[in-house]
Structures are given as structure tokens and as C-alpha cells.
Amino acid sequence: MSQITIVGVDLAKNSFALVALDVHGKEVQRKTLRRKQWLTYLAQLPPCTVAMEACASAHHWARRLQALGHTPVLLPPQHVKAYQRGQKNDGNDARAVAEAQRHGAIRPVPIQTVAQQDARMFLNFRRQVLATRTRLVNQTRGVLAEYGIVVPRGIAALRRALPEILEDAENELSPAMRALLERQRQRLVELDAEVAWYDAQVKQRVQEEPACKRLLALPGVGPLVGLALKTWMGDGRQFDRGRAASAALGMVPRQHSTGGRSVLLGISKRGDPWVRALVIHGARAVVSRVAGKDDPLSRWIQRLVATRGFNKAVVALANKIVRMAWVVIARGEEYQPRTAA
């Protein structure tokens, strides 16, 4: 049997499809193994490249494969789809992954450590708590409107209004409804406490991470934006320059050119939409307060606002922030803003 050089794996919860290619790209093995079997099978192979789509559990399996001496590679699923041939089944999916890796034109996804996954899950759980609190507030305001009680928008407004509404004996709320609203108020208090815990953890994690502390010097970057950028970018070594990092986050123009005619559209919006939104909101805060400042960055922003408009200036600054963040993270440099002459 020819020596196996690439193994393509189609990951699932319990069933794993594997396709092995030799040095010439010829398929030499095709197997479907259970969850407890596939690592045992790979442990018997000589060191080779094991390609997988960067989907659920992929980082865990990549770390396990590294321990076995193999070279795991995680490929973006949206790019692997172009290599799909024939009917849609697990074996053909694994074959597509193997051929995509053999082609070698797809930028792999960096394998995350346990600490990096912990940081990403921390931010995801924080977002979930915030979304739960927002849903609770919107639902409660809608219910109160059904009883003729209108509460202004905002969490703080409902937080102030609920005790007064519960104590008001002249409204139409029945004892049963008052009991339900009291439970909603208690849940809101609990969620407020949980959000406060997460916010305190964000500040603590930033102080414990040197790269995050350096990021705080960038314009428009606070503790949350800095932690999100560091978690998303990792060590930054997967990018050879800052522009590649901003392109991966969707901060560069989308191109639709043909026949020698270049057409540039709005930003591509690739990558993590939440991290991109955080950076843009930070940039918006800087641009909205740039009037009257005389440093080089502020003058550049003022020229953009005058010639391109406020929103385009915000996105341009966000692009620059990501590029500067890459220098701070990947090269370990300190941000040194230029002062007014």
C-alpha cells in the first residue's frame, strides 16, 4: 500500500468519515469509524497531515492529533465546498477536505489552545447573558403595555419603574400579575449582578494579559474591545501584515471587477461580525469626539469626515485600528501616537 500523506476527515458527533491520499493524490483508503475508534486508527499511521473543517470540536481533535505526532490542519468550510464532487455524503465530504488540503491554496484556521477557547467561550457567555437581559426587558415592557402601562426604552428605565408599578394600587394589575412581575424583577436583578461579574472579569483579564494592556493605548479600544481583538487574533502570526488582519475581519472593500474594470464596493464583512461591530463602535466614539483636536490622527479623521462623510471615516479608522492592533499583538510593540507639531 502507498504511504499515506494526507487524511481528510469529515467530523461529526459519533461517526467520522476518513479518506486517505498518497503522495500522488490517489485515494488509498476510505473508512467510516465511530468516535472511540478513529483516534486509535490514526495512532497506527505514520505521521501525516490530517485535514478537517474548522467546525464544532475541531480544535479539540486537532490538539489530540498533535499529541499523536500528526500535523492537523483546519480549513474554513466555506472554501472546502468548492472541492465537493458527486453526491453529498460523508465520504465525499472527507474526500473534498483531503483534496483541498492537497491543493494547498486555502489559508488554514489557527489551532486554538485551551486558554484561547476559554477566552472565546467567556465572551460568548457574556453576550448570551446580555441578550437574555435584553429579551427580558423587552418582554416585560410589552406585557406592561398590554395593561396600559408604558415604560420608556432602556434597561435603566424599567429597573426604576418596576418597583413603582408594583407598589401602585391604582393600576389594573391583578395580584397574579403582580406576582409574575415581581419574579421578572428578581430575574432582572440577578442578570444585572451577572453582567457586573462579567464586566469585572473583563477588566481583570485585560490587566493579566500584557498584549491586552498594550491594546488599551490604541484609540477607540477599551477593555472589552481589547480582549475581543486579542481573543480573535490570537498571537497574530497567521497574518503576514496588518492589512491581512483587517481583510480577515471584513474591513476592506468588497471587489467585483471584470474586463479590466475595477469596481470596489462596501466592506466585505468577512470574519467575526461581533468583533467587527465592537471595533467599529470604538472607532465611532473616536470620530464623534475629534472636533477641535490637532494631532495627526485627528486631522486625518477630520479630512475624511469632510471629504467622505462620517460613516466612511468611522470604517476607515476601524480598519486602521485593526492594523495597529496586529502590530501591537504580533510584534509586541507599544503604540506611540504622533503628537501635534
UniProtKB/TrEMBL annotation:
GO terms for biological process: DNA transposition. It comes from the Bacteria. Residues 212-289 form the Transposase IS116/IS110/IS902 C-terminal domain. Residues 7-147 form the Transposase IS110-like N-terminal domain. GO terms for molecular function: DNA binding; transposase activity. InterPro entries: Transp_IS110-like_N (IPR002525), Transpos_IS110 (IPR047650), Transposase_20 (IPR003346). This is Transposase IS116. It comes from Thioalkalivibrio paradoxus ARh 1.
